[in-house]
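pinging the channel bc i need a second pair of eyes. not urgent but kinda urgent?? the chain im working w is below, pasted from the shared doc
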Amino acid sequence: MGWATALKKTARAGLTVERTRLEPLVAVRGACGVAVVIGLLLAHGSPTLAVSSAFGAFASGLATFQRSWRPRPMLALGVAASLGFSTFVGYLAAADHALFVALLAVWTLLAGMAWALGPVSGFVANQTIAVMLVTVTLPTSVGGAAEHAALIVFGGLVQAALIIAFPIRPWGRQRDALADALAAEADYARRLRHDPVARFDPQPLMEARSAAELTPRQARNRPRQLGGPRGVAERIRPVLASLADPVLGAPAEGPERDHVRDLLAAAATVLDAVARAIRRGEPVRLPPETVAALEVPETGSVLTGPARRSAMRLIALLADAVEASDEPVQATRPTTPAERRHLLRPTVTGLVPVAWRALRREARSSSAVARHAVRVTAVSCAGYVLGTALPLGHGYWAPMTSVMVMRPDFAQTYQRGVARFAGTFVGLWVAAGISALFHPGVYVCAALAVVSIGMLYLLFRTGYIVASACIGAYVVFLLGIAGEGWSQTVQARLALTLLGGLLAMAAYAVWPTWETPRLRDRLADWLQANGGYALAVVEVYARPAERKPRRVREALLDGRAARMEWEEAAARAQKEPVRHRGLSRSSERAGESALATMGRVTMLMEAHLPDKTARPNPDAEEFGRALRAALPDAVAAVRERRALDWSGPRAVLEVWREREGDEGVAVRGADLLVDALDELAEALSPGPRGRNRAARRR
């Protein structure tokens, strides 16, 4: 798309307000943390100290709304500590303009690189810059700077204490993640009734796995309901697909297909019931007709062959899911050094080497994170210099806007830029109107600031424009506590917010990091991960006695992660005003379809893996050897825009079929696998003929 279309779409997305589930009790608790801090400092300190400490409580509370699986008190304390340190260092350099700009450059560069650790780390790092820019404008001495920093930390301590004292839905985010995964599988089972080859979005399963990663302290307190159903959910998905598949499961029509549809409907009901029980912390309730549909009739099953095996395994797995989720809600799982059944999450100290490796990995000129860090550093320094040079006052608002708006990708930066200005405009003028009409005093301004921050916490997930409006009103009322009138705030903030947003968007236009030119690399990564998953599964068929389920599992996770990276990259590329000269949109869709089919076929083969006592399969071993030999060149060919060659695996497959026929699950799965690889070769072949053939096959 062109620049005009891209800007129109990003502006529309930035101005969109979404409907989402609200958490009023959590919002009230966060607002109470800010109210406690402001009230204590107004009663026993000064308005300036109240304003300073309020920023710490506000930012610490805001961090607890981020999508992180770590305990909320730890997030509040971590943010408060980093805010206090950055504020104190900023105060020490604030007296010298050049020294402060140098400090701002170093700090912003580090904050930009923090996105290598994840979005939560990037958000927290941005908060440290924003709070430092604001608080250093409040006059004080070196001793006062330490006092300001301590009060900011105190704000975080108050938020952490409130979370501990008033827990609201403990483990609620983990419960929602697991329930969402089970509900997604229930929806998948229903879609399989009508479309036997329906696609499944693995994102809910990935979220549930991330939520299941625990520190040893968390593992000692985790409810039993969150311990077992996730593993069962992971095993149910391939069984559902293999049962519905017309090639490796039941026939497309007939009594067996009707019975499969009944089983899939019953499975969906059970999965929904388990998801509801986990989300609400209550026992599983199943209708009698669902239980009857999952019972094996005394006269024998209607299904035969692989479909019967899949049905029996599905019934057993559903029973395991119900049993695992019917445990007492308050009971906890004891954890000893000998029992490490949970997924380990690094402790705070254990994150240091992880963070260092992530930073080293992204410290290169081609990295989107590194380019973002350089961009945001240049913009923040330029914005600070320009803001202080203009006769408006509050010059820090321009760099603060740039830092809060800028993200490593084009769409988010431009969406947030538009939303920031529009939301700030609304919030400032609403707050200014209230101030002009009622002339509130110090304590009324404090109450209005708390109300504004409560609205922010409540409506945080509805859109950045709403959050910006609440923040704009909060700043007006908060500075009103310190004695600054609304007329001193509104016009300057609007002008400097516009300046900061324009600088951010201009910087991305001048030195962009486009995702579109890297789509072939993303596609090649997905092919390589899918190939590793297929090889791990084929090796089990070749040598069942050497079966290593962990290796298959890790290969599946790698393939799932590569698919999600591709989908996220493709979604970002669609919003960019550039084109990929070596990959058309039709080729992109066809290649994505082929690789999704490849992963699905491999998953179906995994659902029918032989036992360790089964005989080795030399043909499967020869096929795996041919696939392993062809895969590296194919991955390189995708990157280099060359034709893909799968003649080696195809030739071995033909010999295998001549020896075994089309009855074995392994050979039928290998046949479908090679078909998917051929579809990928046609989709990415040079010239329109290959793309047209791929489109017709789809």
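so The beta strands are 213-214, 343-344. and The chain has three domains: 3-14+23-169+368-510, 172-222+224-328, 516-697. — does that match what u expected or am i reading it wrong
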